[in-house]
Amino acid sequence: MLDILDTINRWLAEQQSVALATVVKTWGSAPRGVGSKMGVTAGTAMIGSVSGGCVEGAVVEEAVVGLRDGRPRLLKFGVADDMAWEVGLTCGGSIEVFVEPLDKLWWDALADLAKSDRFGATVTVMAGENIGEKILLDGAGDVLYHSPNIADDLQSAMKTVAAESSKSGITTIGETRVMVDQQVERPHLILIGGVHVAIPLCAMASQVGFRVSIVDPRAAFASAERFPDVANITHTYPDRALPQLGLDRSTYLAVLTHDPKIDDKALITALPAKIPYVGVLSSGRTHRQRVARLKEAGLSDGLIAQIRTPIGIDIGASTPEEIAVCILAEIIAVRNGLRVGARGHSPGATAGHAK
Prior knowledge:
Distance between the termini: 41 Å
Oligomer: single chain
Radius of gyration: 23 Å
Order of helices and strands: HEEEHEHEHEEEHEEEHEEHEHEHHEH
Largest sheet: 6 strands, parallel
Number of domains: 3
CATH topology of the largest domain: Rossmann fold
Number of helices: 11
CATH superfamily of the largest domain: NAD(P)-binding Rossmann-like Domain
CATH class of the largest domain: Alpha Beta
Strand order of the largest sheet: 13-12-11-14-15-16
Shape: elongated
């Protein structure tokens, strides 16, 4: 969504007609996931992708036709095995793509959610006389938008479907096929310490879609000169900064300073929130000393066990850039629901982690 938002908004400001194509279902090794989007103008300009290149041409043609007749359409494409290697796949796959003239009022409401990193869910009818009709709900279940002609009973059923769906995808209301398309918050990576490894870690995390914040009371470390692309730099201790930044299901914390006065405050504040990831740059000896301090501060064994240290996946990292790779790899794995962290080495053996 964010990858196409600014371009589509510019097209709309220029009074261009815009169609939106969305992947609604995939089979096999389809190259783009459900919810992937592509914008198309009447002049065939395009932004985004729905297939990695293999069916974009056909989608653009259908989008232009849809802008002429004002009607949405559901398209299905197959990628044969003998063509798959040409588009970067190991084998064939199929996708369904929903193409529709862009509803500006709906888009504006969705764009507001995306820009402010708030959750939302759109439910769209995929076929039949109500094809293209939709509602948009926020994280509280309030309706931010609904198609003007949508019936009350259908709208009510669509709200129920949105509330019960755990992810984007196709479902049915009676015999009516609908698409639930979730706009999820960007993951938030909070770095405790503007140390050297944080510089490449910030850049890499931003490239893969994380918003990044840095907390370090030492202004010389966490400076705008060292981190020119990080908008949120806080020069207070973590026990004050973290509650203000927010600790929730989308928060990932990397504790990097090696200074107990800073690191311990971060852990004592973050661990009770049970966020998805808390990693600490540390050796085994240092961590044992840390555990004793955290227990003395009142943290339970269960909370302390959430800490991942040595931080990152063991790849034999030695440079700051390599250590950043191993940290981000572990965070991405955790975010994708993979079980990681069982390293085949003793605590502190990962290069660059000992202190």
